[in-house]
Design a protein that fits this description.
Helix content: 10-25%
Number of domains: 1
Oligomer: single chain
Distance between the termini: 24 Å
Order of helices and strands: EEHEEEHEHE
Structural class: alpha+beta
């Protein structure tokens, strides 16, 4: 995720690359027309129930189209108790998938720990945005690696991105 010339298969695990939080912690990131595949995940009281199935299908379509972005970025936006949207950055249009372009200015903050701390992270992020004199319009989660790779690397970083 940190070396734009690195492919996922070049990682230690053959899956996710290790993640350096420094370029993402307490930063301002600007996106301009960044291309994403958009998909929907069903949840039960905010707990995803078909996330793996959606990722397997969507990533299969992305690989098949040769559209894997050099710098992976997958965002999740909670849409309530029973669902959320997933946005996967891609290098080009993926046939058969819903495509969206995202633009905006985002404050970012890195959190480390188990997903059960998400509520605490959201509260901290809201406070952080307010302390910067900004107003949060949207909130996205960047899960930097899968659970298997997080265990391998010994850390589980999640970046919160607040659109301001």
């Amino acid at each position: 995720m940190n070396d734009p010339n690195m492919k996922l298969s070049d990682s230690e695990t053959g899956c996710c690359q290790d993640f350096d939080p420094k370029p993402w912690d307490d930063k301002v990131k600007v996106m301009k027309d960044k291309l994403f595949v958009k998909d929907h995940v069903r949840c039960f009281f905010r707990i995803p129930i078909n996330f793996g199935k959606v990722m397997k299908r969507t990533m299969g379509d992305i690989y098949k189209a040769g559209a894997l972005a050099q710098e992976p970025l997958m965002l999740y936006e909670c849409k309530g108790l029973f669902g959320g949207d997933v946005f996967i950055h891609v290098a080009k249009v993926v046939p058969g998938e819903e495509m969206v372009r995202m633009s905006g200015t985002f404050l970012t903050k890195v959190f480390e720990g188990p997903y059960k701390d998400t509520g605490k992270w959201v509260r901290e992020m809201k406070y952080y945005v307010k302390s910067q004199g900004k107003e949060m319009k949207d909130l996205y989660f960047f899960y930097t690696m899968c659970p298997k790779c997080a265990k391998h690397y010994g850390h589980n970083y999640t970046v919160l991105l607040a659109r301001i």
